[in-house]
């Protein structure tokens, strides 16, 4: 009886540790909140914030905006991973209102466009696979 309790406790601890240590993984079905087999920009922003959350991490002064310096610092921490962004896409391209700051909407729009390969304003499951790769271990977002 004692051995059984010890085994259960050890197994329970191992499961708990693995759940805490396991990286967050993007799940297409969870991100596709309305179940229409495509992820629109709003669904993307919600899922990206929940599973990746880098906007808040990169916004070091907590003003809900990213300065060029915050963007560069955040982006630079990922320079060992392959970027999902074209080399010619950057902060200025995402700054839609030219105020030298990125709002969370501008940031999400820029990231969203990087994964919408066909430019149809819907991320389908094959496109979403690229994001899943980038969120996984060693990926660009590596959460």
Automatic annotation (TrEMBL):
Keywords: Plasmid, Signal
Record-linked SUPFAM superfamilies: EF-hand
Superkingdom in the source lineage: Bacteria
InterPro entries, sorted: EF-hand-dom_pair, EF_Hand_1_Ca_BS
Signal peptide: 1-26
Name assigned to this protein: EF-hand domain-containing protein
Source organism of this protein record: Sinorhizobium sojae CCBAU 05684
